[in-house]
């Protein structure tokens, strides 16, 4: 399907308006008598106007290059050439000139009388009739500059009218968005301001709300096909899709990237769709569709404002402030179980996402040196030149930048959820519906992410722990995203749950009062005994990891250098019931 932009149409002046101005004295002498829109004016005496045209121009020419009866390229100096000079040799010239002007998209041709010609050549009139180009005769007393000034004045006035129209539409749309029924109200105002049918389509093309006179089925089907082109990414070179004629993709449709808008025609009507701003979900975006009889210059701007408002009114943050979210909060505050509150927000399973921002520096300093701290504390150090000095007590360990409220909100928008919380360690945790029912979690620039396995409301605490450990592994491996992979088919699934949990609790009982040691042991074993990677994952100095592991070995009275011992401890950790993080996050 041919592509074209759905951006703002340029203001235009009516050809009939120009001809009607008595001060110019223009007269149409050739071409169709229909009204056309002029968006530019261009004076040129070139033999071939095509390379200099953008489309929609009124070309002004005095015919200086018109060949004379003797075959010369111009009229004699100071002389006038009359209509009788339009010899047979001139006809091919004008025919070629008009054909090239029409090919370049010219709207009309203005031919000036004097100082070269005292009448409009008959061959020019015939060529304009043949190619359908309106031909205006500019009288001897009217300068081309006067015509240009009149066109630009009319275009400026048209632009001012469009700006006033946009301002009025913005005010009415903002008022509609504040009504108790904001989405239908915004669509009603959109339909009224555009004199069109306005519809909100979901990601599958289903009609959610609509306003205005309903168009024929063919136009509605073509609109849905256009909306299907507004996905997050595309694989083919085509930028448009769907039924209708002359439809195409719009702004931003680079190769492999879906457009943000698309337009076309069907059933004699103008179609346009605008993707609602927001995170891409791996499929087509929700969209605002508009079907109208004609398209005015400001229509795209007004529809764009409506699309932004609809995105805010239907986005996850707005939904999170709705009645279900408020009801869930009331249930929790009044002592209800979390699973009763969670089902109000989403009836299915959830995923927990834990994230940390990535800074331009190394996430953590894990180089050599002497660390301060105890066996269960965190050690820090500072460098000065080539020497190493112990940092004062209480100096924070270098780490990634903390996520402020704006960054946390931005992450929630990218994930497609408003259920976002900043953690005490400067990270972010979020709740979102299970992949397949909502937006898929993908790598995000500037963030390191851990994702839990899908879990029901009663298992969200365990899912939170899964996401945190996945995040630690992502930080340790310097990977942008790690997902927790359930090991239901592992050896631990073959062990009786109660007996194995009791045995694990007995084996690890010496660590029951030291959650930091227990989590350090788990992380260290999962990372194959790497001091540096464990330090990075936990956000501590590697010497702190060494001290903690040494202390763990002492409390367990076990040789952690023995592979059999490490294997037994790893199985015990796997058999333990899900525990909360060692420190509130």
Topology, element by element:
Layout: E1 13-14, H1 15-19, E2 27-30, E3 37-38, E4 40-43, E5 57-61, H2 91-103, E6 108-112, H3 122-131, E7 135-138, H4 144-177, H5 182-194, E8 196-201, E9 207-211, H6 217-227, E10 245-249, E11 261-266, E12 269-275, E13 287-292, H7 299-314, H8 316-320, H9 323-333, H10 338-345, E14 350-357, E15 381-384, E16 387-390, H11 405-415, E17 420-422, E18 428-433, E19 447-451, H12 460-477, E20 481-483, H13 497-507, H14 515-526, H15 531-538, H16 542-556, H17 563-575
For the structure shown, list the relevant keywords:
585 residues; alpha+beta; Udp-n-acetylmuramoylalanyl-d-glutamate--2,6- Diaminopimelate Ligase, Chain: A, domain 1; five-stranded mixed beta sheet; elongated; disordered N terminus
Helical content class:
25-40%
**What's the count of strands?**
20
Distance between the termini: 53 Å
Q: Tell me the structural class.
A: alpha+beta
Helix count from the secondary structure assignment: 17
CATH C-level category of the largest domain: Alpha Beta
CATH topology descriptor of the largest domain: Beta-Lactamase
The radius of gyration over CA amounts to 36 Å
Which CATH architecture of the largest domain would you pick? 2-Layer Sandwich
Our count of domains comes out at 4
pLDDT < 50 runs, ≥5 residues: 1-8, 68-89, 233-256, 360-398
Summarize the biggest pleated sheet: 6 strands, antiparallel
The portion of residues forming beta strands comes to: 15-25%
The gross shape turns out to be elongated
Quaternary state, please?
single chain
Q: What topology, given as strand order, has the largest sheet? A: 9-8-13-12-11-10
| Arithmetic mean pLDDT | 77
């Amino acid at each position: 399907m041919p592509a074209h932009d759905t951006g703002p149409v340029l203001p235009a002046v009516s050809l009939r308006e120009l001809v009607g101005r008595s001060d110019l004295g223009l007269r149409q002498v050739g071409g169709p008598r229909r009204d056309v829109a002029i968006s530019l004016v261009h004076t040129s005496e070139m033999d071939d106007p095509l390379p200099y045209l953008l489309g929609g121009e009124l070309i002004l020419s005095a015919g200086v290059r018109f060949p004379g009866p003797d075959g010369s390229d111009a009229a004699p100096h100071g002389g006038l050439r009359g209509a009788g000079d339009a010899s047979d040799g001139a006809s091919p010239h004008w025919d070629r000139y008009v054909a090239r002007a029409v090919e370049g998209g010219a709207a009309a041709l203005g031919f000036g009388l004097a100082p070269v010609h005292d009448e409009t050549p008959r061959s020019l009139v015939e060529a304009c009739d043949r190619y359908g180009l309106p031909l205006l005769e500019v009288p001897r007393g009217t300068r081309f500059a006067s015509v240009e000034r009149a066109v630009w004045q009319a275009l400026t006035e048209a632009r001012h009218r469009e700006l006033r129209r946009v301002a009025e539409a913005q005010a009415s749309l903002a008022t509609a968005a504040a009504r108790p029924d904001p989405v239908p109200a915004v669509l009603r105002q959109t339909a009224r301001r555009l004199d069109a049918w306005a519809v909100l389509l979901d990601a599958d093309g289903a009609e959610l709300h609509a306003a205005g006179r309903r168009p024929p089925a063919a136009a509605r089907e073509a609109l849905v096909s256009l909306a299907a082109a507004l996905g997050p990414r595309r694989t083919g070179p085509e930028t448009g899709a769907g039924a209708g004629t002359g439809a195409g993709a719009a702004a931003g449709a680079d190769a492999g990237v879906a457009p943000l808008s698309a337009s076309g025609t069907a059933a004699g009507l103008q179609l346009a769709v605008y993707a609602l701003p927001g995170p891409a979900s791996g499929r087509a975006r929700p969209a605002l569709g508009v079907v109208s009889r004609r398209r005015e210059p400001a229509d795209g701007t007004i529809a764009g404002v409506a699309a932004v408002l609809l995105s805010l009114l239907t986005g996850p943050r707005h939904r999170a402030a709705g009645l279900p979210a408020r009801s869930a909060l009331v249930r929790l505050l009044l002592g209800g179980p979390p699973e009763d509150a969670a089902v109000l927000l989403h009836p299915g399973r959830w995923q927990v996402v834990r994230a940390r921002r990535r800074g331009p520096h190394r996430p953590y300093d894990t180089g050599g040196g002497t660390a301060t701290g105890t066996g269960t504390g965190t050690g820090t150090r500072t460098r000065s030149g080539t020497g190493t000095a112990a940092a004062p007590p209480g100096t924070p360990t270098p780490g990634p930048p903390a996520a402020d409220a704006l960054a946390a909100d931005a992450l929630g928008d990218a994930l497609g959820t408003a259920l976002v919380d900043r953690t005490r360690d400067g990270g972010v945790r979020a709740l979102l519906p299970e992949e397949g029912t909502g937006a898929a979690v993908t790598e995000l620039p500037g963030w390191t992410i851990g994702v839990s396995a899908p879990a029901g409301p009663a298992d969200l605490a365990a899912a939170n722990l899964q996401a945190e450990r996945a995040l630690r592994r992502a930080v340790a491996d310097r990977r942008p995203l790690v997902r927790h992979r359930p090991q239901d088919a592992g050896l631990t699934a073959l062990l009786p749950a109660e007996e194995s949990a009791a045995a694990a609790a007995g084996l690890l009982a010496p660590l029951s009062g030291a959650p930091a040691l227990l989590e350090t042991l788990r992380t260290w074993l999962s990372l194959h005994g790497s001091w540096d990677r464990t330090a990075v994952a936990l956000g501590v100095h590697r010497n702190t990891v060494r001290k903690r592991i040494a202390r763990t070995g002492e409390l367990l009275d076990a040789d952690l250098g023995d592979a059999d011992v490490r294997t037994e401890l790893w199985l015990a950790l796997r058999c333990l019931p899900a525990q909360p993080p060692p420190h509130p996050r």
